[in-house]
Amino acid sequence: MAARAPSRNRRIAPALRHVPAPYNGPERRANGRYSLTLHGRGTFLSVPTRWLHEKEAFEVVAEDVSLGGMQVHFNEPVRAGDAVRLKFTVPGRGAIELDTVVRWVHREPGSRLADTSAGLAFNDDAPHKDIEALLHASDYSRGGASSGTGGVTAMTRQVNLPLRRAIEISIRSLRIRTTRTLATSAVVMFAIWFLTLMLCSGPVSAALEIGEIITKESRAQDLWVVIVSMLVAVVGITNTLHMSVAERYREIGTMKCLGALDRFVVELFLLESLALGAVGSVAGAFCGMVHAIYPWLTRAKELDHVALPVKALLENFGLGVAAGLALTILGSLYPAFRAARMAPAEAMRTEV
Amino acid sequence: MARKLKPVVSKKPSGRSEYTVVCRDVKKEYSLGTQMVHALRGVSLEIKRGEYISIMGPSGSGKSTLFNMIGGLDHPSGGKVFIDEVDIAQLDPYELAWLRCRKIGYIFQTFNLIPVMTALENVTLPMIFAGLTPDDYLPKGAAVLKQVGLGDRLHHKPTELSGGQQQRVAIARSLANDPAIVLADEPTGNLDLKTGREIINLLRTLNKKKGVTIISATHDLKMIDVSDRIFWIRDGAIAKVEERGKMKISVGAIAE
Ligand SMILES: Nc1ncnc2c1ncn2[C@@H]1O[C@H](COP(=O)(O)OP(=O)(O)OP(=O)(O)O)[C@@H](O)[C@H]1O
Ligand SMILES: [Mg+2]
Fold it and tell me: Which of A241, B23, B87, B145 is the most exposed, having the fewest neighbouring CB atoms within 10 Å of its CB?
C-alpha cells in the first residue's frame, strides 16, 4: 500500500497553521498530519469480509488528520480494505460525512480491540471542503475548544457487561438455586466458625488463666488446633465451591454460545461467590467469636476483674472473615476460569 | 489508488461471495489415551446464503463434531472454516464472542436452556450480551417468544414446559439477535413426531421469510422434505450431497 500522492486539487487553507501531530510510527502519508481529537461515528459501507450491516454504527476517535486521510481509534474488528463512512460533527460546520477505505490496521499483539488504530484514506471523490473543515477542526481542538462529539448515540456494540446486569444475574441465580446456595454458605459458615473459635479461644483462655501456669505443651497444642482448623476451612470451602461451579460447566458453555466473553463468565461466578462468601464468613466468624467468649460469660461472676481481650477478639474476627472470603473466591475462581477458557463444545460436554 | 465506492449503501455489496459457510478440509481428531479417534477426516463444503441444509448420517459419523466446527464452538485439528469469507481461526476472543452472539444462532438437541431462568430470561440473555437495555430487550424477547407460539409462557421455567415448548424457547433464543445463520444439532431428536414436524415447519418458515441460512444436523427423515441440500456424512467424511429439486434451485439462480 503505497502512500498516495498529494492530489492537486487539495490545497490547505492558508489561514491554517501546520502543527505536526506527534507521531512516531512509519510515515505512510504524503500530506502533513494535523493533531486533533474528534469523536464521531462510523459505519461500514461495503464489507466484503465483515459481518456488520451498514445500519450498525460504531464509535470512532480520530487522532490526526491530513489531506489524504486520518488515523483513528476503533472499537471494531476492521480489516484493511474495508470501506467506512465516517460522520463527524465539527464546531461551526455541523455534520460532515466522508467515505474512506481502511489502508492499514495496527493492534499490538494480545492487546484489546479497543486499542486498534487504523489508517483511513479518504476516497478520491470525498469533497475537498469537508476535508478542509476537518483540518480546521484540528485547529479548534488544539486551541482547547470542545471537540465535536457528534452523534455518538447509537453504540450498538458493547465490550462490558454492565455491572448492574451482572449483579442481577448472579443474585437471581443464587436465589433460584436456594438449596445449593444455602448448603455452600453453610459449609463456609461452619468452617469459619471453627476457625474463628480456635483463633479467639486462645486470647480468651489466656485472659481467664492469668496467674495460672501455661505450659509449653498447651501452647503448642493451641497452635496445632489452629492449623488444623485452617486446613479444614481451606479444603472444605475450596472443594465445595469447586463442585458448585463444576456442576455448571454446561451452563458456562451455553453462555459462551450466546456470546458471553470469558470475562463475563468469570465475573458472574466471582460475584456469586463473593455474595455467598460474605454471608457465610461473617455469620461464621460471628458465631465463632461468641462461642469463644462463652466460657468468659459463664465464669464472669467468679472472676469479676477479668476484662475481655476485645482487641485480639476483633482482630481474629476480621481474620476469620478475610480467610472465608479469600477461600471462597479462590475456590470458585479457578474452576470458573478453567471453564471459561474452554471451547464451548468442550465445556458443554464436560460432566462432573 | 483508493477504491471507488458506490455512493449509495448497497444491501448486497458487490464482490461478496454467495457462500456464507465454507469448510476446507476440516479435520478433527480426539485422542483417547493412545488411540486417536478421527471424528472428521477432511470435510469440504460450501453453503450458500439462505439455504436450508441438512447434515445426515448414522450415529457417530461426526455430525455434531461438524456442527461444532462450523459454529466456532471447538477448534479443528486441521483445515479451515470460513464464515462470510472470514477464517474463524483468526478471530480474537472478542470477535469470536461477537460471531456467536450476533451472527449465528445455536439450537441443541438437549435444548441447553439455563434451568434457573424463565423463558423470557433465557431468550433475552443473548440480547444482554449484545448490549441491549431492558427497554429494548424485554419487548423484543416477548415478541420473539410470541413468534414461536409461546406468547403466554414468558415467565415459565424450562422445567415447567414440555419438550417441544423448551425447544421453541431454544429456537427463540437462537433468533434473539437476528442471526444470519441458525445452526441446529438434532433439533427434533428429543421430540415426538408431531412436535418435531412443527419445529421443522418453524425453521422452514424462518428460512423462507427471513432468508436465514439453516444448517441442521439430524437423523430425522422428515427434514429431507424441506432441505435444499442434504449432506450425507459417513465415518467423518461427506459420502454424497443430494440436491432436492434441482429445478427449484436453478429457477432461484435465474431469478437472482
Ligand atoms: N470429546 C470426544 N472425545 C473423544 N471422541 C469423541 C468426542 N466427541 C466425539 N467423539 C467421537 O467422534 C465421532 C463422531 O462423534 P459425533 O458426536 O460427531 O457423532 P454424531 O454424528 O453427532 O452422532 P450422533 O448422531 O449419535 O449424535 C464418534 O466416533 C465419537 O465417539
Ligand atoms: Mg450428535
Answer: B87
